[in-house]
Specification:
Blueprint lengths: L8 E6 L1 H4 L8 H16 L3 E6 L2 H9 L8 H24 L4 E7 L2 H4 L1 H16 L2 E7 L13 H11 L4 E6 L20 E2 L4 H5 L13 H13 L4 E5 L5 H6 L6 E3 L2 H4 L2
Parallel strand pairs: 1-2, 1-5, 2-4, 3-4, 5-7, 6-8
Antiparallel strand pairs: 7-8
Length: 266
């Protein structure tokens, strides 16, 4: 049984496939369950950070556009439209449980420059002090190539390191890391624990999942590398039912746990 009973700071990342339907419209019932479970975890006395995708997809849905637009300018405009929609929903849902939320938009220069990272770290600490749940997304509107995290899996890992999190949970549209793609190979087996990211683990990471998502298992492996280097355990699990986060904290063996020797001694 996994022991996460002493976790004080947790980062939870939800991907586009978790927060939206394939149409790009927000999956409100799932977001409501997510808000409820994260509010409950906060009520236990833990600090919670939510890293969320879905701004671009929300913009697509609001404009009634059926396909993803890939140019930087289109992505930035869609994110500008969708980010407000996303935060409005989160504010309403978390507010139902008496929880204050705070929007935090980041670009990669905050982890590349020590002074900026310290400022961000201090902001998180005060948000925790005020009892808020920070809701983090990449600042797509101003990000250019050299300032991009590239995906929110990587962003969530960096956020975990900034706040010195005790656990990172990435919710996706798959149960965890498999020996091969379970969508095309019925012989695929779930790997429950990874202690080292070697060439084999690298080789079984595929590409992006659903049409509206930007990440895939490969970006989650990159996130795991960052987390493990800093001694932070990370779990990949299926986000279809967000209550899985509570079950992970209760020690249930769900998804794939990435844990380094360093993390074992934390």
């Amino acid at each position: 049984m996994r022991d996460f009973g002493d976790v004080k700071k947790i980062v939870v990342k939800v991907g586009t496939s978790t927060v939206t339907y394939p149409t790009g419209k927000l999956n409100l019932s799932r977001l409501e369950r997510l808000a409820r479970v994260l509010s409950d975890i906060k009520n236990e006395g833990r600090d919670v950070v939510l890293v969320t995708s879905g701004a671009v997809a929300s913009g697509l849905g609001r404009l009634g556009l059926a396909k993803n637009h890939k140019t930087t300018q289109e992505k930035q405009a869609l994110a500008a439209i969708g980010q407000g929609i996303l935060m409005q929903i989160y504010e309403k849902l978390f507010g139902e449980y008496g929880v204050v939320v705070a929007q935090v938009l980041l670009t990669k220069d905050v982890v590349d420059e020590e002074k900026k990272m310290l400022n961000v770290k201090n902001t998180f600490e005060y948000l925790f002090k005020y009892g808020a749940i920070p809701i983090v997304n990449e600042n797509d509107v101003v990000a250019i190539e050299e300032l991009e995290f590239g995906d929110n899996d990587t962003l969530s890992a960096y956020v975990a390191t900034i706040i010195d999190a005790d656990l990172l949970v990435i919710l996706s549209d798959i149960d965890g890391l498999y020996t091969c793609d379970p969508r095309i190979d019925s012989s695929a087996k779930l790997i429950t624990e990874v202690f080292e990211i070697d060439s084999y683990i690298e080789s079984i990471a595929g590409g992006a999942g659903t049409a509206n998502s930007t990440g895939g298992m490969q970006t989650k492996i990159e996130a795991a590398k960052i987390a493990m280097q800093h001694g932070i355990p990370m779990v990949i699990a299926n986000g279809e039912n967000p209550t899985v986060v509570k079950e992970i904290l209760e020690g249930k063996e769900i998804g794939t746990l990435f844990i380094s020797k360093n993390a074992i001694s934390r």
